[in-house]
Predict the structure.
Amino acid sequence: MNMIILIDEKKGRKIAKNLNLSVVGFLGILLINFKKEYISKNYIIEIIDKADKLGYRLSNTLKTDFLNNL
């Protein structure tokens, strides 16, 4: 099967990769949708802000690097 696993948790990602599964996380989903022009950079910023308020943990460095490379 050619499937992708959606997971962000570090231990789970490692296990999935060891099983030769393709892994994508929260930011990866946003990036895919941005590249396909389904969502804008401004909308991505809104989504990340909402996720942050809901307790989703992303380091400031990761957020900054991600947004600077869009």
